[in-house]
Specification:
The protein has 326 residues and is α/β, with parallel strands linked by helices. The chain is built from 14 helices and five strands. Strand 2, helix 2 and strand 3 form a beta-alpha-beta unit. The termini are far apart.
Length: 326
Amino acid sequence: MVFRFCIAALLTLASTDARGAEVLERGIFTVVCDARDLPHAERALTALEAAAREFAPRLPAGDAPIRVLIPGSLRAFNHETRRAASGEVAGVARPARGEIVLKSPRLRGAGEDFTGTVRHELVHILLHRNGVAEGLPKWLNEGICMSLANEYRWAAPIHVAQMYLGGRIIPLHQLDLAFMAPGSEMEFGDAYAQALSMTRHLRDHLGEARFWAVVMGVRDLDFLESMQAHGGLTPGEFWKDYQASLWWVALVGTLASGSVLGPAWVILIVAWIRRRYRDRRILRRWAREEAEEEDVFRWEMVTEDPEAWKHDDDGEDDPWKSSVSR
């Protein structure tokens, strides 16, 4: 199988470039690349080995080989990934076959995260090998891959802030469908930004142990059942909690983006937070005053002083009126 993959990869590379190809092997990993991409192949191998060690406690790679192809031209990459318009696609994983196709950094924009792509595609294979890929919703599958790959660390809050303030948050029942657009598998658009944001929120909400219990639980349970059994909440409850947290995501994203959204958005968010804080303070005051009223209206006090329950007509002793007027 490894031999056949290498032969096919060499033919793909040779058909588009006369410079020849290189084959690197270390452990379970084999990388086939254009000769010009040999330094990138070394980087990929180093990243794969480091990631495999890092993920091993929760997502062991096993002994089956993992093969990586780095085509030498955009045409070869499009042919290998069967993408007619792959401007946004930086890598593709074929988990069942243990294969990854990476776009060479030579063919990508300056500053793009090649190592992040390597790690992302490896996680797709590891999720499959550990029997959970099929049971996870698409948003969580992609969110785990992006999260473990350390991709888009600052871009996600900014992007989600823009979505939230622009009314573009995707409803939960529509989110998986947003990943189905052809050619957008690695485009960091709305769906990917929201998936990463939701995955981070779920990990923070549950903690690492319970989060991974939910993920691994889909080997035996439906995802909804695993959420309830191991996470102690329903997807609906999680969605409600996530939506309630978006005001903070919007604030952090806006401040991190500087002038991306403009000062008017900052003023709007600060005003909204102040109003939210004021409303909560009033609710706490009402709760405190209601608790105090339990002492005021005890039957013993009324029998001792029949006038104790009455209030002045001007309402100065009325906690409802006084709290509303402040």
